[in-house]
Design goal:
heterodimer, A: Rossmann fold, 7-stranded parallel sheet, 5-stranded parallel sheet, 8 helices, 18 strands, elongated, B: alpha/beta, Rossmann fold, 9-stranded mixed sheet, two-stranded antiparallel sheet, 7 helices, 13 strands, binds flavin-adenine dinucleotide, binds adenosine monophosphate
């Protein structure tokens, strides 16, 4: 049987390959010959990083149009590339733009998609993927139609593993039709980040509606600083405008797996758990002894966050 | 402007979900199903745009007959009329089929704007909006937290990692909105009464020009092989704080044990 060809749709973050793209190269390497598809202007370093993480081939399209919100040009280029090269499987990370591209691509090519996969494997020539389903269940999914197959994988399902290879770079034919770029970015507003990045932090102190008001997030910042950690939040408080969207942890926010997660005034809705259940240790502080978060906590503290957190920070400072 | 909002009836997310052991599908008990709260943000966005610019809001759903309740709720909030795509053959459809059915119902409406939620609360694949945009040949503006329309230009603030993008395109377009768009209005008594008289236009597979063999489980491109329960409850320790910070010793001891301090 010919070697399976597994592609990873990759993207850049500040000029370097996004960490979720690198996670998927680990998955792809384990399934067959891994190739990265990168449709973005990129430097030699970025291409080399993809090779070093296991891409034997990088299909690179560097048309400046891709620096825009280029879903439609990406879909056109990907569809053409897939028709020319017939990969067996294309993996997509769970990022905003990846979702936009995969859905549109699937409709254009008449393909199905398995979304939210936490693992991807082959059973003979069938793709099998596991997907969290109906709250506390896991579904094993497969495809009814022949290859190519499209799977979107959840963050942190695979580790980033530099393996030290070198990729052959194959240019993706330019000639993007400007008419396919109907959406324009008119402005990008960056958020100021402080302390370690949520995805990389070893300790996360996260707050929910139980903090009562936006100003009380200061208490969490002080504790996080003491522990060298980052501050995260539930969606309820992001929606309320207490903290920016980039703080949101959960199904529609970030997936994190720190050594320690301290949930402060968070009830533990399934959508929140989806993003932090994988933490090594979980401490939950909540007034309500029946809060579902306690079912996932290694240490549950029934009490008032507004008293406990500052006392804890004070105690740690005194050490 | 004419706006179509796609809305789904989902099992109440506050109740435990049930899965049919034979079909692996979610059990959709009408008494325990509601208009997806995620879709209320789409309806709210549409109503605000029509209040500013005039026009009409049409709510569109695919689901069992009982899904008419979700459409009524949308009309009680203020939508003008509803389309319900309903047919036994459609039960068990996947995202591509759902998108095709919705596209077939929406296309003849020639809306200026189609609004979806980012993802549905029951299955949260988030695939239907992008597929629908492709099938209707519309540009897509996704993850919007703020929307404005001026003439034929639509501008959105899109939530992205590390910040916000301001995106622009020309109508017609497809939009997905997040909960940050603003609190959805609660239907008034008057709204509820008025909704009873508003039309729900039903369409079956034949009316949409789809063949029964290409929809439902027969047309699905993915299969569920098995579903397993994975309750990962931890047998953690629970302590109570007496209100004075008495639990702090216990927390510090835990931090030491896991070598975080
Ligand atoms: C489609 C969809 C996607 C979603 N995605 C996400 C997601 O990605 N991330 C996410 O977080 N949520 C998500 N949600 C929302 C989720 O369902 C919950 O609504 C949300 O997580 C609740 O946030 P919370 O725990 O802060 O608030 P609440 O549920 O209101 O909980 C507040 C908790 O604080 C406790 N409390 C109150 N006062 C105190 C005090 N003084 N001291 C100690 N405890 C106190 C209360 O007992 C309560 O348990 C999503 C929902 C939907 C429908
Ligand atoms: N059966 C349906 N009827 C109407 N709208 C739907 C249906 N399924 C999905 N949608 C729309 O598409 C969004 C995303 O759904 P999904 O792709 O299933 O996560 C939903 O929030 C709805 O706005």
């Amino acid at each position: 049987m010919a070697t399976r060809r597994v592609w990873v749709w990759t993207e850049l973050a500040e000029g370097a390959p996004h960490r979720l793209s690198l996670e998927l190269l680990t998955a792809a390497r384990g399934l067959g010959e891994a190739a990265a598809v990168l449709l973005a202007p990129a430097g030699a370093d970025a291409l080399a990083t993809l090779g070093a993480h296991g891409a034997a081939v990088v299909y690179h399209g560097d048309d400046p149009v891709y620096a825009q919100y280029a879903v439609e040009p990406q879909v056109a280029a990907l569809a053409a590339l897939m028709q020319a090269e017939s990969p067996d499987l294309v993996l997509f990370p769970s990022t905003f733009t990846a979702r936009d591209v995969i859905a549109r691509l699937a409709a254009r090519l008449g393909l199905g998609v398995i979304a939210n996969a936490t693992s991807v494997a082959y059973d003979g020539d069938q793709v099998v993927a596991t997907v969290p389903y109906a709250g506390d269940r896991v579904a094993t999914m497969t495809f009814a139609a022949p290859a190519p197959h499209l799977v979107q994988v959840r963050p942190k399902s695979y580790p980033v593993e530099p393996v030290g290879g070198q990729a052959e770079v194959r240019p993706v034919p330019a000639g993007v039709d400007p008419a396919t770029c109907r959406v324009k970015i008119v402005e990008t507003i960056q958020q100021e980040a402080e302390g370690p990045n949520l995805e990389e932090a070893n300790v996360i102190v996260a707050g929910g509606r139980g903090l009562g008001k936006a100003e009380n997030f200061r208490l969490l910042e002080e504790l996080a600083k003491r522990l060298g950690g980052a501050v995260g939040a539930s969606r309820a408080v992001v929606d309320a405008g207490w903290v920016p969207y980039s703080y949101q942890i959960g199904q529609t926010g970030k997936t994190v797996k720190p050594t320690l997660y301290i949930a402060c005034g968070i009830s533990g809705a399934i959508q929140h758990l989806a993003g932090m259940k994988g933490s090594r240790y979980i401490i939950a502080i909540n007034q309500d002894p029946d809060a579902p978060i306690f079912e996932n906590a290694d240490l549950g503290v029934v009490g008032d966050v507004l008293t406990i957190v500052p006392k804890l920070t004070e105690r740690l400072a005194a050490r | 402007m004419k706006i179509c909002v796609t809305v789904k009836q989902v099992p109440d997310p506050n109740l435990p979900l049930q899965v049919d052991p034979d079909t692996h599908r979610l059990v959709r008990n009408p008494e325990q199903s509601i208009l997806d709260p995620a879709d209320e943000y789409g309806i709210e966005t549409a109503l605000r745009l029509v209040e500013q610019h005039g026009g009409e809001v049409v709510v569109v759903s695919m689901g069992p007959l009982a899904a008419a309740d979700a459409l009524r709720r949308g009309m009680a909030m203020g939508a003008d009329r509803a389309i319900l795509i309903t047919d036994d053959a459609l039960a068990g459809s996947d995202a591509p089929t759902t998108a095709r059915a919705l596209a077939a119902a929406i296309r003849p409406e020639q809306p200026d704007l189609v609004i979806c939620a980012v993802e549905a609360t029951d299955a949260y694949t988030g695939m239907v909006p992008g597929m629908l945009a492709e099938l209707l040949d519309l540009p897509q503006l996704t993850f919007a937290r703020q929307v404005s329309v001026e003439g034929q230009t639509i501008t959105v603030h899109r939530d992205v990692e590390g910040g916000t993008q301001v995106l622009q395109t020309s109508l017609p377009a497809l939009l997905t909105v997040t909960a940050s768009i603003g609190e959805p209005r609660y239907p008034s008594f008057k709204g509820v009464m008025a909704a009873k008289r508003k039309p729900v236009d039903e369409r079956d597979v034949a009316a949409l020009g789809l063949a029964p063999s290409e929809v439902g489980p027969a047309g699905a491109k993915e299969r569920v092989r098995a579903v397993e329960l994975v309750r990962e409850e931890k047998q953690g320790k629970i302590v109570s704080d007496d209100g004075s910070g008495s639990s702090v010793d216990e927390i510090v001891a835990f931090l030491e044990r896991i070598q975080v301090v």
